[in-house]
Each structure stands twice: as C-alpha cells, then as structure tokens.
TrEMBL record:
<dbReference type="InterPro" id="IPR036390">
    <property type="entry name" value="WH_DNA-bd_sf"/>
</dbReference>
<dbReference type="GO" id="GO:0097063">
    <property type="term" value="F:cadmium ion sensor activity"/>
</dbReference>
<protein>
    <submittedName>
        <fullName>Helix-turn-helix transcriptional regulator</fullName>
    </submittedName>
</protein>
<dbReference type="GO" id="GO:0003700">
    <property type="term" value="F:DNA-binding transcription factor activity"/>
</dbReference>
<dbReference type="GO" id="GO:0046686">
    <property type="term" value="P:response to cadmium ion"/>
</dbReference>
<dbReference type="InterPro" id="IPR011991">
    <property type="entry name" value="ArsR-like_HTH"/>
</dbReference>
<dbReference type="GO" id="GO:0010288">
    <property type="term" value="P:response to lead ion"/>
</dbReference>
<dbReference type="InterPro" id="IPR052543">
    <property type="entry name" value="HTH_Metal-responsive_Reg"/>
</dbReference>
<dbReference type="GO" id="GO:0003677">
    <property type="term" value="F:DNA binding"/>
</dbReference>
<dbReference type="GO" id="GO:0032791">
    <property type="term" value="F:lead ion binding"/>
</dbReference>
<dbReference type="InterPro" id="IPR001845">
    <property type="entry name" value="HTH_ArsR_DNA-bd_dom"/>
</dbReference>
<dbReference type="InterPro" id="IPR036388">
    <property type="entry name" value="WH-like_DNA-bd_sf"/>
</dbReference>
<feature type="domain" description="HTH arsR-type">
    <location>
        <begin position="1"/>
        <end position="95"/>
    </location>
</feature>
Length: 229
C-alpha cells in the first residue's frame, strides 16, 4: 500500500507542476508538438521544456515520435488525455456569483476538441441526441451501442465492429469540464469527430481547440439527429 501511495504522489507531482500542466493542457488538441513549441505555450526555455518532457516520458504519460531531426510529443494513450481533461472538471467556475478563474472563451466552451473527440456544449448535445435517438445507451461509465445505432453509424461509413477491435476504450463517458455533463469519448467518439470534419459539419480553428460549426453541419445534424445548435 505504501508503495502505491508513493507512486501516486509521484504522478501527482509530475502533473501538478505549472509548466508541465500547461504543456499537457495544450496537448489536448490531439496534435503532437516539439519541445520548442511546448516551451512557448508554457513560457519557459526550450531546454527547460525538454527536461520537463523527459520526466513525463519516463512516467509513461507522454510518448515521442521522431521525424527527421524533430522529436514530437503526444499523450501515451487516450486514457492519459481523459485524466487531464477530467481534472479540469474540478475547476471552481463560480463561488457566490463571483468568478474564481478567468472566464472560458464562449467559442471554446461551445464547441472544441477534447483530444480526439467533440467536447463543449456541442459534444454534450450531440451525445444526448445520440441517446435520445436510441443509438447509444449509458451503461455505468460507458456507452453501449444499440443495433439501431450500429446501422446509423454504418450509414456514415463508420465500421463500429472494427473500432471494437482497437486497443482502447470503445465508447466511454467523459465528463465535460465546461458543461459538467458527459460527452462521448473513446474510439466511437473519435470516429464521430472525423466524420464531422470530413463532411465539413465542423472545422478546426487555427491554433486553438475551438471547432467552428458550418451551416451545412447545422442543417445535417438537425436532419440526422434532430439536434438544434
């Protein structure tokens, strides 16, 4: 038990450092970054960023991929991204009507990426519409795909059976830090985002996690899911 407590405290210290936590937060957009790019986000030197990142890699929080002379950092797996995003739900957004933290930009709160799936009000509304239409069903901390849902995702070109074979969560509930309700995450959530991008229902805003909903997206999501956005 003492060993587990020590390991937990070590992970907490790693994530809790201000510079490292800022770099982890920026990695939630799902893209890989160099140490130099992450140093700019955290307002520290590239050398300092490399030292911080090395500790995160050693702890299996981040992974490195090399391309030419560059080394890119990303989350080790989607479970790590889920932990980082879930921590934000602890933010005390309000206390007796007085904001405790800097207000969340409306665009980010409304529609954003959470690692590789849709979050914000759009992500929560999308998930609730999938449930209301009988395509998915909450089960504990997961979502079960119904037969009706399997057919619906198939019409979008999503191979749900193939997704289940991946070495990751198929469909789980991810607590949305701005909405305080769950949105769809996992392989199914990631595929939903890819469909929305490919069909030009949403677009990624440059240099941010914000998603922009297109007129086409509003129309087709309304037709397919009765989703009003």
């Amino acid at each position: 038990m003492e060993e587990l407590e020590n390991q937990f405290s070590q992970i907490a210290v790693l994530i809790g450092d201000k510079a490292r936590s800022i770099m982890l937060w920026n990695l939630l957009d799902g893209r890989a970054y160099t140490a130099t790019e992450l140093s700019v986000c955290a307002n520290i030197s590239p050398q300092s960023a490399s030292n911080h990142l090395a500790k995160l890699v050693d702890a299996n929080i981040l992974s490195i991929s090399k391309q030419g002379r560059h080394r890119y950092y990303n989350f080790k797996n989607d479970a790590v991204a889920q932990v980082v995003e879930s921590m934000a739900s602890l933010l005390p957004l309000q206390d007796e009507g007085k904001p405790k933290v800097k207000p969340v930009p409306p665009g980010i709160a409304y529609a954003r990426t959470c690692y590789d799936h849709v979050a914000g009000r759009l992500g929560v509304s999308l998930t609730e519409s999938l449930e209301a239409n009988g395509f998915i069903k909450a089960s504990g901390k997961e979502y079960d795909l119904t037969d009706k849902g399997r057919e619906w995702f198939h019409t979008l070109g999503v191979d749900t059976e193939g997704l289940k074979q991946q070495k990751r969560s198929f469909a789980h509930q991810c607590l949305d830090w701005s909405e305080r309700r769950s949105h769809l995450a996992g392989a199914l959530g990631a595929s939903m985002l890819q469909v929305m991008l490919q069909k030009d229902w949403v677009r990624k805003k440059n240099n941010t996690r914000e998603l922009l909903i297109t007129p086409k997206g509003k129309l087709e999501l309304s037709d397919l899911l009765k989703l009003k956005i």
